[in-house]
Amino acid sequence: MKSLRTRLALFCSLLIVVVVLFTSSLSYLEGKARVRSMQLQHLEDVVTRLSDDIDDRVRTRHVLLEQAAASLQLDGNNIRKHAPEILHGFRYLKGSFSSIMLFDAEGNVVADYPELPGRRGTSVLDRAYFAQTRDTLRSQISEPVRVAGDIKRSLIIFTSPILDEHGQFAGVLGGSLELFAPELFGDLRSIAIGGTGYININTRASRLTIFHPDRSRIMQASPDTSRDPVFGRALQGWDGSTESLAANGEPALMVYRNMKNVNWVVGGVFPLREAYEPISVMARNHMLIVLLATLLAFPVGWWGVHRLLGPLQALRGKVQAMAFGAEKSVKIQGSHELEMLAQTLTDVFGERERISEELAAREAFFRALNESSPLGIFVTDADGLLVYCNRATLALGGLAQREEDWLGRHWLDAVHPAQRDTIEPEWQALRHGDAAGFYQLCHLTGVRGVPIRVELRFTRLQQGSILRFLGVVHDVSDREEALLSMNAERERGMAILTSIADAVVLTNQLDEVSYINPPAQRLLGLNAEEAQGRSLALFVSLAYPDSGQAVSLATLAETRMAVPVELDLLSRDMRLQPVVLTLSVVQAAGSMHGYKICVLHDDSERRRRERKHRWEATHDALTNLLNRRGFLGALTVLLDNGEAMAQNNVVVMMDLDHFKQVNDSGGHQAGDQILQDIAAILQKRLRNTDVISRLGGDEFALILYNCTRDTAQGIMEAVRGDIARLRPQSNPDVCRVTASIGLTQVQPQDTRPHDIIQRADLRCYQAKEQGRNRVVATLGSQ
Ligand SMILES: Nc1nc2c(ncn2[C@@H]2O[C@H](COP(=O)(O)OP(=O)(O)OP(=O)(O)O)[C@@H](O)[C@H]2O)c(=O)[nH]1
């Protein structure tokens, strides 16, 4: 049954049988319906024709008798008196009736034809047909009447009233018909409804059978209507045809017609058994055909399927050949579908080959990757026995290189014996599915028994029904060593940070203080506990020293990283502390933010020294006035300032007279005192904005801004007078000192300090020339 051919053959056979059965059943049912319709139609035709025919016969006799009675118009006496003659005149009625009779008004037979002995003189006064004729004065047809003494002589009496000339009842003309006489139903017996079908006539009033092929049923009570309900309905006046059970319990086609002129029902009954006989024969023949089809179906189906599957068989061979590589494509002659299947198989095999090659390439790639990996990679079976190891595993696990030496060994053998008991429970949990994997730091046996510290990861690999475990070992001995040395380095770093003089603050990635050394605590005015974990920006406010502009650590981290920056630190007690900040940011891999190392060096002393040097470079230490360099700088600034040059400015050169003598007589110290006193005079007489300098020795140079020459001359005269009145405090009598002063106005065309100084010098020299202790403002005409 597993063979496709057998299944197809059986399927085809069954299909054939089912189709034959189905068509046979259909044609049987169709035929049966047609036969039924035909037989019923035939029965209806027969019964209708018979009913009409008998009805016509009855009506003809009825009319004949009526006409005869109507033609008489005799009174009762004449009827009695001339009865034989009257009846003689109606002998022509003998062709239609078995006998004719004349009754007087009292119901006595007064004449009959043919004459029957003993009939004349008998009274029918008590008979229903006579009474109804007399009472209704209308023609009547009696119920069947059985003639006494002769069972086969049953009669139907037709009666018609005889009226006298006044329309009074005078007698009755009667005609009898024997049921068995040929005049009424005689030819009915010749009508055949198949072999077993029959016609019957029953009266509705007295429920007697008056015709039946079985003579013994005639004049017997009609069939029981409870056993033959269709007949019962016909007695109620129903006309029609149907299929029902006959009185004998046999199913039959039935047709009933009620007659118009007499109270009778004509029925036709045709047993189904015979009605359907033609179709039954056909059904039997069909059954034979089905049987034959069933017998032939399997061999025919088998043969047909064998033919149809021939190309498929060939396809199988081709596919096998292709599967083993003997052929590259499948070509087959057959149906279009098979050709398409062959093409699809060719494509599938092509794709399979491509995928196999790709898989092989990938496997080679991964194998090479595994073999070259510094990670130890190994696979075990469900029991933990090694099925694959890469080179790194062999090295780390101290396993032999030859496959036969490690294949099938338990992986735990490669773990250092001291740690096997620790790892075993984890392995068992993984093995029994209680865990999906595990991670352990442990030691492997290592080469020549030197344990190697490794990170071991185990994963469960379930592929269908095959359970494997994948182990990955990573040599972490170097990393651990590096970690140890890093920790030592860190300790050293911390010791250094603690011992250095500079303030150092470390922050985490969120700029929160993670370390603050003692100098930093002092500088920022806080202790380690209150700084720890808080944002550094809370304690550090910075500004550029020159501009005073505030700057944040974040900005410095972006712009001045790892560069020493001179800044002013505003301490918590609002002191400005000069510092040099070196800010480094250590970026962690993959992180947006970094750790900050903030080194703050106290810059107060250096900044103070620098200020002093700067001051000394431009000032005279004895008088605290600007020196030559300072003066030249101020004069250069003036020349470069267009706005100031647009005003009147005066440059003055002053040289003391015979100052040498002061030194000589009062000592160098007295000379110094004089120089300082003169500086004080100048500072008193000039504005703060003016420039006062000592160029060297006893020589002074001045710049009077926004000042006319005359005004300047007046000021310098006052100065000269002050100096002339000056007496050295140490030795007031030693000598007196005076000053020769030359001044010049700065001209708009002046560009070089030297030219202006030279002009002023020249006037100063002129003052000396003219006798000293004077102010010279003009040179010749200037
Ligand atoms: N006490 C003192 N003396 C100084 C200083 N610098 C220069 N001198 C002296 O000042 C004197 C200047 O003398 P001279 O340049 O010859 O001029 P003078 O003596 O004033 O003579 P005339 O200028 O010609 O009137 C020298 O004796 C210097 O030694 C100083 O800083 N302190």
Strand and helix layout:
Layout: H1 4-70, H2 76-89, E1 99-104, E2 109-113, H3 128-136, E3 140-141, E4 145-146, E5 154-163, E6 169-178, H4 182-185, E7 198-203, E8 209-211, H5 229-235, E9 240-245, E10 251-258, E11 264-271, H6 272-275, H7 277-323, H8 336-372, E12 376-380, E13 386-389, H9 391-397, H10 403-406, H11 417-431, E14 437-444, E15 452-463, E16 466-475, H12 477-499, E17 503-507, E18 513-516, H13 518-524, H14 528-531, E19 541-543, E20 550-551, H15 553-559, E21 565-570, E22 576-587, E23 594-602, H16 604-618, H17 628-640, H18 642-645, E24 650-657, H19 659-685, E25 691-696, E26 699-704, H20 709-724, E27 738-745, H21 753-769, E28 775-776
Parallel strand pairs: 27-28
Antiparallel strand pairs: 1-2, 1-6, 3-5, 4-5, 5-6, 7-8, 7-11, 9-10, 10-11, 12-13, 12-16, 14-15, 15-16, 17-18, 17-23, 19-20, 19-21, 21-22, 22-23, 24-26, 24-27, 25-26
Helix pairs in contact: 1-7, 7-8, 19-20
Task: Characterise the protein shown here.
With 782 residues, the chain is of the alpha+beta class. It has five domains: 71-178, Beta-Lactamase; 182-275, 2-Layer Sandwich (Beta-Lactamase); 376-475, PAS domain (Beta-Lactamase, 2-Layer Sandwich); 492-607, PAS domain (Beta-Lactamase, 2-Layer Sandwich), CATH 3.30.450.20; 619-776, Reverse transcriptase/Diguanylate cyclase domain (Alpha-Beta Plaits), CATH 3.30.70.270. A hairpin with a 5-residue loop joins strand 9 (240-245) and strand 10. It is elongated, with a radius of gyration of 78 Å. The structure holds guanosine-5'-triphosphate.
